[in-house]
Amino acid sequence: MRKLLVANRGEIAVRVIRAARELGIGTVAVYSEADQDALHVKLADERVLIGPPAASRSYLNMDVIVTAAVDLGADAVHPGYGFLSERAEFAEKVAAARLTFVGPSAETIRLMGDKARARSAAEAAGVPTVPGSNGPVDSVAEALAEAEQAGYPVAVKAAAGGGGRGIRVVADAAELTEALPVAMAEAQAAFGSGLVYIERFVPNARHIEVQVFGDGQNFVHLGERECSMQRRRQKVIEEAGAPGLPEDVRTAMTEAAVALAKVSGYSGAGTVEFLYDPARGEFYFIEMNTRIQVEHPVTEMVTGRDLVREQLTVASGAPLSFAQPDVEFRGHAIEVRLNAENPDFGFMPSPGVISSMRLPGGPFVRIDSGFGPGSEISPFYDSLLAKIVIWAEDRPAAVARMARTLDEVEIEGVATTAGFLRRVTDVAEFREGRYHTTFLEDWIAGGAGK
After folding, report:
1. Distances, alpha carbon 287 to alpha carbons 161, 208, 217, 229, 315, in Å
2. Whose CA is closest to 196, among 182, 210, 207, 206?
3. Do the Cβ atoms of 8 and 352 come closer than 8 Å?
4. Strand boundaries in 378-429, DSSP class E
5. By its UniProt entry, which InterPro entries does this protein fall under (predicted)?
6. Contacts of 154 (CB under 8 A, 6+ apart)
7. pLDDT tens-digit profile of 378-412?
8. Rg from Cα positions in the chain
9. pTM of the model
10. What is the rounded CA–CA span in Å between residue 433 and residue 352?
11. According to the model, what pLDDT value does residue 191 have?
12. Strand-pair category, 234-240 with 26-32
């Protein structure tokens, strides 16, 4: 790999560019008209304008991006996360242009992108799945039969959905009868496929994921991440590892994740997401994300492994640089997603120009951001302003360090979630590691989030 085009923007584009430069790989940034002064554009060796601000005409324009890579002599493309990172068609177009796609094969992306097929693959690998339908349901009658067998409440999920999108929870047969046609129509509109399937909904469940890595021949895990602190099914705070997770469950979960990577001949970084039912002590496969995750830094902090660097070397044809016995875990890490949003107005995005920006520092504090003073938060893209990541020798020390770092955040020009996140660090349930996927929503609804 000599020259890498980074098909993304913001902090992940900066992250990839930095890893590539440390390996001596030339970098090309793509940017829209809204991002011409962005940090990732300034850091790259070369840059190319790919279109107007709307993502559909720039960062999601496959042909323009592949053409730019070819024209500028790049021999590889890193998709980052979001945008085109899990689009099998994009991986195929990159390969058709005789370029290296930094990620798994298009076949694997397509398999894991279809949630119903992914569920079947997990079952074939012996990975526990949530009780529910073995694939999409075609009618209300079929959905009712599957729900009766799984037990209410159930979740209606879009087969092509992901990242917490395309999910409806229903309490009984009457709600399911009404919700199914609506869910199918919404899935068709949002994902281009109206296929949905049925799963048992687990109350007070925890969302725990396992980082896996493969080179097509060798497969390892790098431990679990706790991702249960969510708002509208979007992760807000992530930890490595998961507080209070029984050791036998942790072992079984990580082994299951590696088994799934193995049956798919996985290559690159991937994440296997599970739902953990503390009441039953059971875990179930949710989905596999075939890309680097937003929250990958917490895994890097507790393992000392550079996951993006490993992505680039494996994509270049090198074997994994470590085996499972080489992966050691030390201490505890927490990441918060600092967004340009106003919690006092329903977390409404707060676009604008950052007039001043002071982010925290000190020992074992890492900031991943694509912005600085004078940067503009565009209304065209997500509102992630920075990821604040900290490490400490144990969880209580990590929580204290995160609270201290959030106290140091000073940003003017746009509203941020810093104060909200700081208040969460004082909540007893968070400090004691006793939270689940709907905890934060309930806490906010009770008025405690303001």
Report:
1. 10, 11, 22, 18, 23
2. 182
3. no
4. 384-392, 410-412
5. ATP-grasp, BC-like_N, Biotin_carboxylase_complex, Biotin_carboxylation_dom, Biotin_COase_C, CPAse_ATP-bd, PreATP-grasp_dom_sf, Rudment_hybrid_motif
6. 132, 146, 147, 169, 170, 176, 198, 199, 200, 201
7. 999 999 999 999 999 999 999 999 999 999 999 99
8. 21
9. 0.91
10. 35
11. 82
12. unpaired
How far apart CA 147 and CA 176 sit, in angstroms, is 9
Q: What is the DSSP letter of 61?
A: -
Tokens read off for 395: 């969880």
More confident of the two residues 191 and 422:
422
Q: What is the largest CA-CA distance in the chain?
A: 60
Question: What is the per-residue DSSP string for 100-141?
Answer: EESSS-HHHHHHHHSHHHHHHHHHHTT--B-SB-SS-B-SHH
CA atoms of 157 and 136, how far apart (whole Å):
9
The one-letter amino acid at 306: D
Nearest to 258 by CA among 329, 327, 188: 327
Let me know: does 47 contact 28? Beta carbons within 8 Å: yes
Q: In whole angstroms, what is the distance from residue 370 CA to residue 385 CA?
A: 7
Is 39 within 8 Å of 14 (Cβ atoms)? yes
pLDDT score, position 74 = 98
Q: Two tokens at 286?
A: 């949710």
User: Can you tell me the distance from the alpha carbon of 357 to that of 371, in angstroms, rounded to the nearest whole number?
Assistant: 9
Measured at the alpha carbon of residue 271, what is the angle toward residues 233 and 273, in degrees to the nearest 5?
A: 45
Measure the CA–CA gap between 133 and 390, rounded to whole angstroms: 40
Task: Supply the DSSP string of 32-100, one letter for each residue.
Answer: EGGGTT-HHHHHSSEEEEEE-SSGGGTTT-HHHHHHHHHHTT--EEE--SSTTTT-HHHHHHHHHTT-E
> Is the torsion defined by CA of 203, 206, 209, 210 positive or negative?
negative
Tell me 52's DSSP state. Answer: -
The 3-state DSSP class for residue 279 equals coil
**CA-closest candidate to residue 424, choices 346, 358, 336:** 336
Q: What is the DSSP letter of 55?
A: G
Enter the tokens of residue 46.
């070369």
pLDDT per residue as tens digits for the range 251-305: 999 999 999 999 999 999 999 999 999 988 999 998 999 999 999 999 999 999 9
On the question of pLDDT at 165 being above 70, the answer is no
DSSP assigned state of 450: -
The C-alpha atoms of residue 420 and residue 344 are separated, in whole angstroms, by 9
